[in-house]
Known about the structure:
By secondary structure, the protein is α/β, with parallel strands linked by helices. It folds into two domains: 12-114 and 220-257, Periplasmic binding protein-like II (D-Maltodextrin-Binding Protein, domain 2); 116-209, Periplasmic binding protein-like II (D-Maltodextrin-Binding Protein, domain 2).
Amino acid sequence: MKKTLITLALLATAPGLAQADxxxxxxxxxxxxIAIANEPPFTAVAADGTVSGxxxxxxxxxxxxxxxPEVVASISEYGAMIPGLQARRHDAITAxxxxxxxxxxxxxxxxxxxxxxxAFLLPKGNPKGFKSYAxxxxxxxxxxxxxxxxxxxxxxxxxxxxxxxxIVVPDGQSGLKMLQDGRIDVYSxxxxxxxxxxAKAADPNLEMFAPVxxxxxxxxxxxxxxxxxxxxxxxxxxxxxxxxxxxxxxxIEPYGFSAAAAMSTSRAQLCGE
Length: 273
Ligand code: 6CS
């Protein structure tokens, strides 16, 4: 009995040991549970349940190299991803969850994976001349759709758009429909997401304005629990090898992302460390 107590005490005081077990746990489990949003080309779930998109494809390859053969995805609103990770419903977030200082406080991000600017989906001709979130704030009748807990929602609120004119939209198809039905004046997502929606909608009455003036280019990383920093470090080792070998670019660039953009910055820079 005494020996067991001592062992447990040692384990408790050796966080490195506990963290290292997370990778062992995932190897045992045979898969990593990832949170995604189903927002192509960042993340996508086909009708048959197949998961793709640049973020899951990179994560699947990295985990495979770590000895975790598969990823199992669950769809989540952006604002629920970090609470879900912390509640242990996911092992990682691989969804284009952009690195920002407040998020970097809550999770352990990998090095950058997918970078993109912000965009507006608008009626053809952009009749109200919206080029920035501040423009929308300045028009007392204008409403903007954005993902709940997402970066575009936060940018709109920070630019002074009142809460009742920032409409939470669950997914791209809903945002597209709401714009087409005139229930919102603008729908905001990253450039590649809006571009994907436009290509699929093939609606001549819509246009994209990008990049949104005053909004930065953001990059995501895979996000892990803080206590799983050793797993994050192992992920980073494989990610760095793939960036070096060109395999990283081969995965993300067909989706429209730039490997050079991700390789030109770092977690330290994006998290404001
Ligand atoms: O990180 C975010 O909050 C944003 N990322 C993506 C890929 N889409 C929208 C979302 O708001």
